[in-house]
Structures are given as C-alpha cells and as structure tokens.
Amino acid sequence: MKIQSIYIILLLSFISITSLFAQEKKKIEIVYAGRLNVEEEQYPGARVLTRDESQQVHIMQGSINMWSDKAIYYSGENFIEAYGNVKLIEGDTIHMTSKYIEYSGITQLAFASGGVILKDPNSTISSDTLYYDRVKQQAFYKNGGTVVKDTSGTITSKIGRYYMEQKKYQFVDDVVLVNKDATINSNYFDFYSDTGYAYLYGPSTIVTTESKTYTEKGFYDTKNRSGYTVKKSEIHYNNRIIEGDSIYFDDNKKFASATNNIKVTDTINHSIAKGHYAEVFKAQDSLFITKRALIATKQENDSIYMHADKIMMTGKPENRIVRAYYNAKIFKSDISGKADSIHSNQKTGLTQLINLQRFSSVDKFSKKRRPILWNVENQMTGDSIHLISNPKTEKLDSLLVFNNAFVISKDTISKDGYNQIFGIRLTGLFNDENKLRKVNIDKNAESIFYARNENQELIGIDKARSGSISILFADGDIEEYTRFNQVDGNLYPESKYPKNEKLLKGFDWREDERPLSVEDLFKDDEPLQLPIIKGLEDYIPQDAFFDEELLERVKLAGQGYIVNRAAQNIPQDETTIFNLLKSSSDLSNSVWEKNDVRLKINSEISPNGKKLATTITGLASTNNNGSVVQIIEKKVGNFIFSVWLKGTGSKKIIFQEQGGDFTVYNFSNINLTNEWKKYSLIAEKVNDGGNLRCIINEIKENETISVWNPMVSELTKK
C-alpha cells in the first residue's frame, strides 16, 4: 500500500506526538517515513517503512535516533530492523553507521553488521559486526575489529569491548597497537582512551625507535612514551639486554631502570651485569648498578668478575670504562683483588685498584688497608695497583704497584715462614698463562727469602737491603733473584735467625680476605632484603558480553516485561538490574529469616568463579521443612525472583504475602542437580495490605544446597 509523502509526514507527526502521551517512553517512535506498507505475508505484524527522495526513514527512542533507507518495524515486540545506509545517533556522543541494524526497544540492545563504524568523542571503532548495549553503554565485537584513537594510534584485535562510561577498551587475541612512536603486540590488552594508558597481559612486545620491550604483564603510557613491566620482562637497548623483576622505561629520556634480580647483557663486549637495582641511559651509553652488583666479562676461555657496592659502566663498547666503588673486588681463576674502588678502561686495558685515604678515629694504630692483589701464591699490596692487559688478546701483560709495594708468598714447607719483598715501586710481567713471571722492586728494596736447594731442603733465611731487586717466579715460588746496589745482607741458618726479624715492617698477610670463588666476592656484604614490588593487578578476563543480566533483559522482554528502573529510582546509566533484596550476598545477615537450617558462609565457589557461595543444610524439625526468607517492603507490582542453586532433591522458590492470609502469588518446584543453574519466578502482587516476601523452601533434614546471588527486581509491563 503506497501513501503520498505529505500525508505520511502529517500522519506520522500526529502519531509521534500522540505516542509521547499514550505510550511508554520506551516505545520506539516513527518520526518520518516516505512510504509505509503492511506486508503480512512476508512480515506478519510489522510495518515496512521506506525512504523517499527527500530523506531517509527516521525512528527514535528516547535519546537514540536512527535513519535508514528501509526499516521493518514490529510494534508489538517494540523491535526494528533497519537496512541500507543505516545511521544511529545517541545524544551528542554515539554515532554509528552500517549496512544493517536490528534494535530492540525493550532490551535496548542493537546489532549492526556490514562495514560498521561507531564513533564517540574519544575514538572510532570499525568492524564487520558490532553489538551495542545502551543500558550498559558497552560495545562489543568478536570477529575482528579496529579502533582508532588520535595520537594513541590504531588498535586491531579479534575480540574487543568498549566500556563507554569508563572510556576503557578490553582487547583479546592478536592485539596490535600502531602509532608514530610504537608498535605493541599482546594477547590481552586493556586501554583507556582518555589517558592513553595501556595495560598488557600475556606475552607482549613494545617496539619503539629506542627499544624493544618484552613482558607478560606491563603498562605503557602511549602519550608520554613511558611504562613499566613486572613479569618476565626484558628491554633491548642496541647492544644491551636488560632483564629484571620490575623494569621502568622512558623513551623520551632514553632511560630505563630495573629492580630485583637484574641481568644486563652486553652483546658486544660479552659482559653480564647483575644486581638488584640498575639504571641505563642509552644516549650516554651508561649503566649504573647496585645492591650486590656484579659484572662478569668473558676473557679468552675464562671470565673475570667484578663486585662492589656500586658499579658504573660508561662509553661506547669499543671505549668502555668500568668504575666499581666501595668495597670493590675482582676474581678470575688465576688472579683476584680488592680495593676501595676499581677502575677499568677496556680500550687501553688498564685496570686500577685504588684506596681512599682514611684514618681511623677509633684505633690510631690500626693498619692502613691498601689495595691488594693475589696471583697464584703471591700477595701484592701498595698505595695503588695497576693491572695492564692486551685489549686485543685480553691476556694479562704487566703489573705496576706504586708506593709501599709489598709482595708476600708463604714458604711452601715451614709453618710460619714468608718470602717478602718491599720497596717503593714494583713492576711485574706475566707469562702466557697469566702467571706472574718477573718482578722488579725499585728503590729502598728489602727482602726476606727462604732459600732452598733442588731437593727443597732449607739452606737458610736470606735477609738483605738493596737499591732494587729482580725476581723470577715459577708457579709462585722464587726461582732466582738478583740484587742491585746491595746495602747489606746475610744468609742465616734457620736456628740462628732472629725471631723478631722474620717479618718486614708493614707486613700484613691477608689470606682470609682472598676470594677463592665468585660466591666469596659477597661474603663481606650486609644481608640484603629486596623490596616488595607492588606491580599490577592480575588480568581479569572480561565477562561474557551476553551475560546473565543481558540475557535476563532479553528473557523478560520475551515475556512482556521490562525492569521498572524509574519506579526504583535507578539511574539510567546503572549497569545491573536493581536488587530489592538486602544483604543478598550474606545470607547469615539478620534480614534473612532462617528456619530449621544451618548456614556455612563462603564454602562454595560461585558460578562466576570469583566469589564464594553459601551452603545451607536442613536440620531436624517437626515439619521437616527448612527455609530462608526475606521480606520486601512492596505492597503492589510485578516482581521477578531469581537465584543460583545446586544440590540434590526437590525444592521450592515462592513469592508470598507477608502476614494476612499469607497468599501465595506464585511458586516453582525445582529439582536440583550437582551443577549450578539459575532459577527464576515472576509474580504479580495485588494490594492486599501485606508486604511481599520471597522464600527458598523445603530444605529437608541433612539435605545440603548451595545458594548464590538471590535477586528480586520490580518489573513493568511493556
């Protein structure tokens, strides 16, 4: 049936104005249609609306307006199907276009398909199919979609959900964010469009021009290009890989810091730094590490380890300088040392052991703790010590000891005999096995040697002073020595040697300080208590979009009801059906009347796996009919009672009058199973003077049932 456009305009305007007064505010209104047809055979009970040359079909419901080329309107079901260039606008915030939309005015759920684009002031969603829930103000896609958010970039994923009031997106499966600064890949990705904050869960990577970050739980600020990670995390900075329990990074400053169980790998210099707090400045090519700081550098087929309270590495790989200070130590299989600080230049091969000038205010006669070095059986000390290695071959080349040079080695046979050399300056040369081969002591040289023949028999104890001494070592033992400008000297039989002259002035044997393993480097450290990292909350999977609340709305709509939100003073943006019950999650509360039952709270995992349900056990009674009851202060209206139950036996849920003749408005017999199931009951209460009450009944002696989330809501007819 075809009607002229001007007549339709007048007719529909009249219908729209009348509808405002005669129908529910929830009713879909037809604002404009070029043509109106009734095609009962193809669309029973529906009106077919078609555009004309001037404009599209226009319908509305409350703050929502929809335009399309064609629409099928089922007024009885308050439902519409819209085809062709469909546009849906809600207020001044939501703007959605697609090829097709179906919309229920009762559930206020829209389904769109065919090139769907949904825009709000914060972002744009594109997908082939999209669900939009007006009540919860949520949009959802499950077959792939794209979100564009100005400077934050473009996000694609298989599943996406938009919580409009929170301005929050929750993406699942094959999530990729791309913007001018970064590319992020993740399995689970929460994103807040107003702040640009992104929360990553599961295996995730963040790639920028400055770094590549991997984590299984982390945060990234897409606007400020900074973030932190707290699970199985690592950052790649050019030639460095940073790992730690918690890592913070700022790509603007080209900076990263890490806390607890840190490992920094230098892929060029083949070194590994460990500790429990570290800072890396990429632009300066520097690393600072503390809290049991340790650096291991591979040399030939061995590794040299350096430990100190704090260690700093600066410079490009080919010109890197390492500074270890406060109780610094080094260890290698053939050499070890200790000093206040150790400086190593990897370009020149020079390593310096330096001590600070300190004086004890407690003990004026305490020994000055000089830098110390051990090689094979030799202990060397002085005011400062320089080790020189060949940067290319990484072999030890020479040794310099400045001022108060002192070399001590224990005699291999006698209990308390020590070979000793003292002078102003020491120069040493190493052989190809990194063992000290030759030592020259210059200026004011003093020495004590235990002279032995080829059978290791003691010939005597040699003590002398000279201008300088040159010594050759073999496996730590003195092979031969030569004195220059000797001042005096004697070779004493052991029995004739003065006991009080067995040690040169300044003798300080420190074998107990010598590290014999990597673990020994830490033996003087104070106990370390690592800070507790607060981190991020664990990932909370999004609830199914078609959850119980939404399905409940659809079910009620099919029975001719909607939740009476206005009558219950429920805000229109409230995201759950209003519950008239008090303490619904705590059946032990006094608002619940308990008859011949015993409750056990928090004893059962609830259907959503997040909360604990209550178990109810029947007790012995005269009528063998235990129950839990709550009174609701409502005297008239339509109501729904729903509850999750599991257990055995038959039970009842009841709507009944409180007082008077205890009229039963409706009841349902239930046969429970060992699986959770939601049961519901709808009843109309007349104004008979009494309040309403809901009951879970017929809980027999020794029978146990589990209860979760009882709910009563008020309904209104469509």
UniProtKB/TrEMBL annotation:
<protein>
    <submittedName>
        <fullName>LPS export ABC transporter periplasmic protein LptC</fullName>
    </submittedName>
</protein>
<feature type="domain" description="Organic solvent tolerance-like N-terminal">
    <location>
        <begin position="25"/>
        <end position="186"/>
    </location>
</feature>
<dbReference type="InterPro" id="IPR005653">
    <property type="entry name" value="OstA-like_N"/>
</dbReference>
<keyword id="KW-0732">Signal</keyword>
<dbReference type="Pfam" id="PF13100">
    <property type="entry name" value="OstA_2"/>
</dbReference>
<dbReference type="InterPro" id="IPR052037">
    <property type="entry name" value="LPS_export_LptA"/>
</dbReference>
